Amino acid sequence: MLVDYARQIELWPPGKEPEKIAVAVSGGADSLFLLHLLHDLKKKGSLRSELLVYHLNHRLRATADRDLQLVIDAARSLDLPLYLRETDVLRLARRLRTSVETAGRQVRYRQLQRLAPVAATGHNADDFVESLLLHLCRGAGPAGLGGMKRFSCVDGLWLWRPLLTFTAVEIRQACQAARIDYAEDESNASLDYKRNRIRQTIMPALKAEGLNPARLAGQFLQAHAETGEDALVQPISTATYVCVDRLLLPGRLVLARAFAVLSVPPPSRAFFLEFSRQWARGRLYMENQELILWASPQSPLWLIRKDAPILRPPGIGPISEGRWPVAYNGQSRTYRLDPGYRVDVFSPGMRFETGRSLKNFWHICQFPRPLRSILPLIVSEQGLVNRACTEFIKEFRLISHSTSSEYSHNPSHRVP
Question: 325: domain range?
């Protein structure tokens, strides 16, 4: 029975499958069905990731122990590691002045992130449509009405929702056929929650008018894939650094798009808050595991991958008859220099032949700080800089309005 459903699951793209996946299991039909389905895929070799089971007791219902026992029994029967957590979510929600749902979600994501890079959740097609209606009621714009993604990243945790094209009815029928025991959450019948009111009143009316949640969710997911909005099926970008115009910032969506272009996970909320703080101050320098971000008060924002060729020292030589071959930032150039001149990189105290300090030059030209010690320079026998070879960085040439000969081409030190 599970085989028929397993064929409909969209797995992780080749080369991107995580080492571990934490399956968030509440004890309800959706999450227990998901757990058995992924375990079946794992047994058949279609899924190579290590699976582990996560359960959070929110301390909201008297029947929580029943849910816990179902999860324990399932993990034991499938021989999977189990991680149990307990949090007074109601108390936390009051302290944070937020809803119980939001507080619970924050706790779950934070705990899941400590267990694995990816969490699999049991959101189904009905959940997909309900979320659309909730966002619509809250006045969301086009971005908020895009619907759930099959793959998404929240504060560094990847979320995988394999069941978005299965309806709640289909999942319960599959559980019964596969003899998977599950619990019914009695709080779903309460109309105290907006989602439940949508589920109990609006969704039946829409289905009576012909709404097919699975078909609608499938259309959205197909559109995400075709437009490149699905985080794991976007075309692979070869960019290793980008410049973002100041006028577009400090928007979080713009920053997330820049991260996507560089093929790194979107910025976490904490990262963006620190980014906004530094941006308001005027000068910005930040790092995470993948990127360096830099901006001065008038410059664009530079985002540079730490493995970018632009951060590697230039290769210089061998020299022959005054010709100095230089390889930097994926480019090769040969400089014909006058006797006594050489190609070098920055060292403290360097000045131009005009007397201007190199530090002052960097400041006036808004040259990105992470590159200052790496950019090739043409230097005299006395250690004075004739000019900086900014032609290796086309973005800087395009955005700089200066005409200083200290970085423009010098006729006597030309590239043949």
Answer: 312-399
